[in-house]
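Below is how a single chain appears once it has passed through the pipeline. First comes the sequence as given, then the structure the pipeline wrote out for it. We keep one example in the README because the format questions we get most often are answered faster by looking than by reading.
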Amino acid sequence: MGEITLHPETEHTAFTGLYRAAALELGENWTEKNRAVFSAAARQDGKLLGAATVSRRFGRLILDYIAVWPEARGQGLGRKLTEACLRYAETEGEAFLWLAARNTGFFRAMGARETGGRELLADCLVCPDYKTACQPKEMKFAVSCTPDPTEKEHVCPRKPTN
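Resulting structure:
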């Protein structure tokens, strides 16, 4: 088996099968509808192991999709993909990377905080699984290490907290 590589991708639709297998909500023309601007992929010997896609909507950069095939889990790929998205947001000069998360514990452990907002959950509100099988939360990562005066607690995603 070859080394696992992580790199940016421009063909966002290459991940449709993975995202659908992970039960992520995809509509027709999802890359155009969500305004996909960046994707990262983890591959080994050319085989897709995981991917993440960032979109620009509501005037924000949003980590819209992230998934790792079940057989590739436990290798830190979700963390590496998230970090690639955070680096992209930083290069774009964004203060935050937003997401609507199902697995809040994973993202919280990486430094994301719940916002209490619902704007990113607009598509979720009409889903029959909302608040039953699926209970997403709006969250955001602080991309830069500059404290936001509106935040009670600031966690820099690049430096460990004591």
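Helices lie at 16-21, 30-33, 77-91, 104-109.

See the next section for the split statistics.
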